[in-house]
Amino acid sequence: MPNLVSPVDSLSKIREYQKAIVQSTNNLDFKPFMTLFFKNYSRDELVEAKDEIIGIKLYPAGITTQSENGVSDFSSISTTLGHMEELGIPLLVHGETGGFVMDREKDFLPVYKQIAEQFPNLHVIMEHITTADAVDVLDQYDNISATVTLHHLMITLDDVAGGLLQPDLFCKPIAKTPNDLAVLREAVFSGHPKIMLRLCSWNFFCSRCSSYACRDI
Predict the structure, then answer these.
(1) At what angle do helices 78-87 and 104-118 cross, to 10 degrees?
(2) Does residue 43 have a pLDDT over 50?
């Protein structure tokens, strides 16, 4: 995840971060997959970084942890998206707006559609989807894929706030409705070819299911 206090937004930072991760694993056989924090990169910068990253992660500005330097003007990113399309670099997106919390993912879906249509050869990945609406968009565009996290296959908002507040179950995007949960489960367990399991970077103990789950940041 590139949304550090100082965003991972250069090849030198990629290499420094990767080195730090590898050192922390005590020389285990582990290879971290690296992503750049989205900003407007030149083509030369992307050519240089291409072989050392799996994609570039886009955060709308201020929408989640340490995303203050994210995108605030989506009309200004077309040149970089065009370079990514040309070079075959995937775009990974934390897709939420700043609106009402239950509608944030749904309200962001038109942005996905616009990018997918404008850049038909750019692989766009909707990260950690939580809604039935996102599954519908996934099926409309050949160049859109998605990830789903374990906890979004386990809980709804009722588990988070239906009785006593369960802060350990809070995550962004927040868990949604029983219908959303059912649609996500059906898509995943039917073997949808465009959905991947997303492993998060912050694990926590879930008292509800007495096991470790993932908190999205």
Answers:
(1) 60
(2) yes
In a 3-state reduction of DSSP, which class is residue 104?
helix
Chain-centroid distance, C-alpha 169 = 18
Interatomic CA distance for residues 146 and 44, integer angstroms:
28
Strands, E, within 86-127: which ranges?
91-93, 124-126
pTM above the 0.85 mark?
A: yes
Task: Please state, in angstroms and rounded to a whole number, the distance separating the CA atoms of residues 27 and 32.
Answer: 12
Both tokens of 192, joined, read: 């949808």
The residue to which tokens 């369960």 are assigned: 166
Task: Give residue 55's region: left, alpha or beta (phi > 0; psi -120 to 50).
Answer: left
Residues 78-123: tens digit of each pLDDT = 999 999 999 999 999 999 999 999 999 999 999 999 999 999 999 9
d(CA 145, CA 192): 10
Question: Higher-confidence residue: 22 or 109?
Answer: 109
* Residue (of 51, 144, 64, 136) closest to 96 by Cα position: 64
Report, in this order, helix, strand and coil percent for the chain, each rounded to 5: 40, 15, 45
Tokens 């239950």 label which residue? 102
Helix (H, G, I), strand (E, B) or coil at 194: coil
CA R_g for the chain: 17
